[in-house]
């Protein structure tokens, strides 16, 4: 069994689940697995994946996990934690088909329920692929991890682990966090993984994902999507979890709707696509335009980071804005194999009172990372410009 704990998942899935069940409890959605690199999966992969998915029906929130969440996640109500106690994964929500080496995975159901599948499912696909392909970690990955920790300390970079989805394995992920905590000390500020945050007694980090904004685009229209997504997030969390994701419909569009109220309310921004220096300058310009001292705000950088890229970004931000880094695959899957280039993306949503599902899109600041129906992408681009 690859996923052995209910909270072996990223915090942002739970924060999003909480917001969904409060505001959109009857919305239905569909997610799809996207194999960006066209990886060929071994024969019988779908059967083994099915067994792993079915086994997740036995997971539940343990007393230890519940106590940790109640203590650390002050932004959750007791009612939501009780909901988590009663939650069980329903494997029937996940459809798996293999045709030769091609893998097709679809998730369908109520959004507040199915939102939890993405991260553990990707973790399973990654770890199972390496197991069935006979790929092993090399003998140098621990030293590389230590070297990265030392380098990040030397450049005074605050960073966290964002590597659950494409890790080599749970055990490697666990060991990496132990090494980072030992060698980076206070510079390693936390992890996105709730279970490993509990095990290693470190901060758990996360706010909201692209799918939150994608849903709002379909529900309220693309012109209002960013504003409504921020407004609804604020309605649920009242200023907590205050890092705003900017690039679902391009950061240029986001900054047009990022007014003084939200710029003051949110602690900072998350960069996740495009050029980090260009994005930073846009953020600095917007804060200046709004009369806000950017040095009181933070940007979390989180797209395909390695230590060299962190150093370049940090050199630019020095003295201008606070910076922190969410490093994913480069920490949890730098073991001598090629990481899988895959995502699981929201594809359609059906809000209450909609008579049929409607497509969702994500544009981002990198055109190669656009996702969704081409006609809908074109509609979104024509609407927001």
Would you mind describing this structure in some detail?
The longest helix has 16 residues, at 118-133. The model has no long low-confidence stretch (mean pLDDT 97). The radius of gyration is 20 Å and the shape is globular. Helix 1 (11-23) packs across helix 11 (225-237) and helix 10 crosses helix 11 (225-237). It has a 6-stranded parallel beta sheet. A 5-stranded antiparallel beta sheet has the order 2-3-1-10-11. The chain folds into 2 domains: 11-136 and 338-366, nicotinate phosphoribosyltransferase; 141-332, nicotinate phosphoribosyltransferase (Alpha-Beta Barrel), CATH 3.20.140.10. It has 385 residues and is an alpha/beta fold. It has 17 helices and 11 strands. 45% of the residues lie in helices and 15% in strands.
Number of strands: 11
Broad structural category: alpha/beta
- Reading off the top of the CATH hierarchy, the class of the largest domain is best stated as Alpha Beta
Find the CATH topology of the largest domain: nicotinate phosphoribosyltransferase
Query: How are the strands ordered across the major sheet?
Result: 5-4-9-8-7-6
Summarize the structure.
By secondary structure, this protein is an alpha/beta fold. The protein is built from 17 helices and 11 strands.
Summarize this structure as a short list of keywords or feature phrases.
385 residues, nicotinate phosphoribosyltransferase, single chain, 15% strand, six-stranded parallel beta sheet, 2 domains, five-stranded antiparallel beta sheet, alpha/beta
């Amino acid at each position: 069994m690859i996923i052995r704990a209910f909270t072996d998942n990223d915090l942002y899935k739970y924060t999003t689940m909480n917001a969904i069940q409060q505001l959109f409890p009857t919305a239905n959605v569909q997610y799809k697995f996207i194999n960006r690199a066209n990886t060929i999966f071994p024969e019988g992969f779908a059967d083994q994946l099915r067994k792993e998915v079915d086994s997740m029906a036995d997971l539940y929130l343990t007393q230890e996990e519940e106590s940790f969440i109640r203590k650390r996640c002050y932004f959750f109500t007791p009612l939501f934690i009780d909901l988590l106690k009663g939650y069980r994964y329903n494997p029937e929500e996940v459809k798996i088909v293999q045709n030769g080496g091609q893998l097709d995975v679809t998730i369908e159901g109520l959004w507040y329920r199915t939102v939890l599948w993405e991260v553990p499912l990707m973790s399973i696909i990654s770890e199972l692929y390496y197991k069935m392909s006979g790929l092993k970690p090399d003998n140098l990955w621990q030293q590389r991890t230590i070297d990265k920790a030392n380098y990040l300390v030397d450049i005074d970079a605050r960073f966290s682990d964002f590597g659950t989805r494409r890790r080599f394995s749970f055990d490697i992920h666990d060991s990496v966090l132990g090494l980072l905590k030992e060698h980076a000390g206070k510079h390693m500020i936390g992890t996105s993984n709730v279970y490993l945050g509990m095990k290693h007694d470190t901060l758990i980090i996360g706010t909201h994902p692209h799918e939150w904004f994608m849903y709002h685009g379909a529900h309220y229209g693309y012109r209002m999507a960013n504003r409504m997504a921020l407004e609804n997030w604020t309605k649920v969390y009242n200023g907590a979890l205050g890092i705003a994701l900017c690039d679902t419909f391009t950061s240029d569009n986001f900054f047009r709707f990022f007014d003084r109220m939200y710029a003051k309310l949110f602690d900072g921004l998350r960069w996740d696509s495009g050029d980090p220096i260009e994005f930073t300058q846009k953020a600095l310009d917007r804060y200046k335009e709004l009369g806000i001292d950017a040095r009181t705000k933070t940007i979390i950088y989180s797209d395909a980071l390695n230590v060299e890229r962190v150093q370049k970004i940090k050199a630019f931000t020095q003295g201008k804005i606070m910076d922190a880094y969410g490093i994913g695959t480069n920490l949890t899957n730098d073991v001598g194999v090629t990481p899988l280039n895959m995502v699981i993306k929201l594809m359609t949503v059906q809000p209450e009172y909609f008579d049929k599902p409607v497509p969702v899109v994500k544009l981002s600041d990198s055109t190669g990372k656009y996702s969704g129906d081409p006609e809908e992408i074109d509609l979104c681009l024509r609407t927001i410009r």
